[in-house]
Amino acid sequence: MKILILCTGNSCRSQMAEAILQSLDNNIKVYSAGTEPSDRVHPMAVEVMEELGLDITGAEPKPVERFLGEEFDFVVTVCGGAKESCPAFTGRVKHRLHIGFEDPAEMTGTKEEVLAGFRRVRDEILRDFFAFFHRQVKQ
Fold first, then answer.
1. Which residue is catalytic, options 3, 5, 21, 86?
2. Which CATH number belongs to the domain containing residue 29 in this structure?
3. For the chain, which has fewer Cβ within 10 Å, the N-terminal or C-terminal residue?
4. Which of 7, 12, 59, 125 is the catalytic position?
């Protein structure tokens, strides 16, 4: 089973989803990429993932073009911008799916308020990708 999680910046949601989904089963191959990748993974994404015991400090945003020649069982988009770009993904894909989340990188407020937003989105990703894993992947 090979899964690509696609987002616009590949700095928050798709990175968190990749780590969460990979942690559920080492026998599947999970990748993430962005249609317009950021320069780095957001530090607050790293911080909230560490709270779950998942280390994404070595992760880096990757362009979707890196994966165009590959075949995937699933391409899962996690934000609206990538959902519109996903049909242009020319790699072979058995199933396309959209599981959308608010972009925590766009949140404003105090550091604690933004961190709370990252935690909320992380927990939504955990919930929804756990369900996806048990419905679609672990059959």
1. 86
2. 3.40.50.2300
3. C
4. 7
Query: Which position among 6, 20, 79, 137 bears the catalytic label?
Result: 79
What pLDDT, in 10s, does the model give residues 100-133? 898 999 899 999 999 999 999 999 999 999 999 9
Domain total in the chain = 1
- Point out which residues pair with 7 in neighbouring strands: 34
What is this structure's pTM?
0.92
- Does residue 79 carry a catalytic annotation? yes
Q: Which residue range(s) make up the domain with 68?
A: 2-137
7 is catalytic: yes
DSSP state of 70: S
Tens digit of pLDDT for each residue in 5-26?
998 899 999 999 999 999 999 9
- Which single residue is written with the structure tokens 């959902």? 83
**CA pair distance 127, 33, nearest whole angstrom:** 21
79: nearest Cα among 1, 3, 12:
12
